[in-house]
Every structure is written in structure tokens, then in C-alpha cells.
Write a structure and sequence with these properties.
5-stranded mixed β-sheet; alpha+beta; 27% strand; 5 helices; single chain
Length: 104
């Protein structure tokens, strides 16, 4: 299993359905140095997909280390965005809920 896939699998294991209640969203992750993945949140469930989704709600572009640091709590996502380590397109406010939907 690739290192990127392992990160997304760990996120699936931490998915909080209560925090994602009523959310219908597609989070696209375009990784600079690894395969791209997307997470579909719908009906209180989260499903991971490989590659690009045709209609993402928000697209987050970064390198794998940044993703790992944000999802492990080592780096604040907003700080990473302000430092230019994360680029976002689409519903940027939705991206701020990632750490609530996938808590540590």
C-alpha cells in the first residue's frame, strides 16, 4: 500500500459521522508527489476513491508531507494555507472542517 493511501485509510478510520451530519461533499486531494485521492462524504458515510473526481466540492493541493502533518495535528491547516503549503479551489470554507470530520 502506498504511503498516501495509508494516510487516507487512517482518515476513514477516524471519520466522525456526527460531525458530517447532513454534509454532501467531495474533497479532492491533488498531491504533488503522490497519487491523487478523493473522499466522498454523503448520508453520514465517507468513501475513498483513487484519482480525480469529476465534480469535487473543494480541491486541496499539497505535498504528502503537508497532508500527513495536518492530519496528525502537527501543522494547523489554516497556517499551512496561509504559508502557501496548501492551495485550495472551490468551497474553501468546507476544507476548514476536515479536522472536525476526521478528528485525532
Amino acid at each position: 500500500m502506498s504511503e498516501a493511501k495509508a494516510v487516507f485509510e487512517s482518515m476513514l478510520g477516524r471519520f466522525d459521522a456526527d460531525e458530517a451530519d447532513d454534509m454532501e461533499a467531495v474533497f479532492q486531494f491533488d498531491l504533488d508527489d503522490a497519487d491523487n485521492y478523493h473522499l466522498i462524504v454523503s448520508d453520514g458515510k465517507c468513501v475513498m476513491g483513487e484519482g480525480e473526481n469529476d465534480d469535487p466540492t473543494v480541491t486541496l493541493s499539497m505535498d504528502l508531507d503537508t497532508l500527513k502533518e495536518v492530519m496528525s495535528g502537527e501543522l494547523d491547516g489554516m497556517a499551512a494555507f496561509m504559508q502557501g503549503k496548501i492551495r485550495a479551489e472551490g468551497d474553501i470554507m468546507l476544507s476548514t472542517k476536515l479536522t472536525q470530520i476526521f478528528p485525532l
